[in-house]
Fold this sequence. Notes:
Layout: H1 2-24, H2 43-57, H3 66-107, H4 112-137, H5 143-161, H6 164-202, H7 206-240, H8 249-280, H9 282-299, E1 304-305, E2 311-312
Antiparallel strand pairs: 1-2
Helix pairs in contact: 1-2, 4-9, 5-8, 6-7, 7-8, 8-9
Signal peptide: 1-18
InterPro entries: DUF599
Keywords: Membrane, Signal, Transmembrane, Transmembrane helix
Amino acid sequence: MMRATAALVLTFSATCFGAHVAIAGFHQPLHVVPRNRKPIVSSRQAVRLHSSVRSVASPPAPPLNVLERFTKSVNTGAETVSNYVEVGWNKAVSRAAVIGGSTVHQLAHPWVVPTVTAMLAFGVLASYHYKLYKQETSGVSTWRSTQANTRVEWAKHVRDTENWIYATQTLRNAITANAFLATTVLSLLTVITGKIVPMIKDGVGRRTITLQFVFVSFSMLLSAYEFLQSARLMTHAGFMFPVTKNSTKVDSIMRKSQNGQWLGLRWLYLSLGFLSWLVGGGMVFLLSALLLTSFFRQIDRVPSIIDEDTVHVII
């Protein structure tokens, strides 16, 4: 009975003390029970008493008003957006660095500059000859068209004068020159092939060397073919002169022979540019293309007449 009464009194006192502490803001110090004094209540009752005091001393937080909730939401959203922006920016910078690095790596790759310079060299040569073709089709005289017209006039002169010995000697000289040029081109191609084939078999830069060698051999073979065609046409013209006195077929054949000789020389000049590409690479090929273009401008001009009987020919 006395123990129950003491527990009731202690509970009431603890409740009042908890309320006082909650209101006063923990300004009053707690009284510590001396060690030599026995507790009035048991340990189980002390735990229950402590939980009840804690519930009274820690009241729930008052609810936030509307303005505080809005401010808190805005701050939370701003922080979230800032985090997303920072993460996105870091990813963008990293990706730009990777792309920039790969671009620089590609530009620094050893095959980029030779490829670009080789394409520029091809463009220079192709644009010049396209311009030359447009000039001839529009009626502007060039070296090739002038020489072709000269051979037609020569064929008419031979038919009118019937000077067959003179015609035969002239054709023989031209045939010998074309045959010599064709033989020289094929001999050069044989020497170049003997030097390039072992390099291709070694496998060092096989694709590039093979492509360059194809252009060199193709241009030289075309040059030899055009020289031989010019010689073949002149041979036919030599047999046709005395037989077809009143026919103009010989005139057409002589014009074609001049075109063949011009193409043979032109492909021979171009093969020098391709050979410089094989030996020195793209930069040397571009330089040789510019030099060849300047050279072509000189030899493709119409011959200037010095006097009535002399023609200045640029070879």
